[in-house]
Amino acid sequence: MQKVCVVEDENSIAEMIRMNLELEGFEVMHFDHGMMASEHFSQLPEYDLIILDVMLPGVNGVELCRQIRENSQVPVLFLSAKGTTSDRIEGLKAGGNDYLPKPFDLEELLLRVGVLTNINKKETAEVVQIGKCEVNFKTFLITNSDSGEVINLSKKEVSLIQLFHEKEGEVIARSEILDRVWGKDQFPTTRTIDNYILNFRKVFEDDPKHPKHFHSIRGVGYKFTK
Question: What are phi and psi of 34, to 5 degrees?
Answer without folding.
Answer: -60, -35
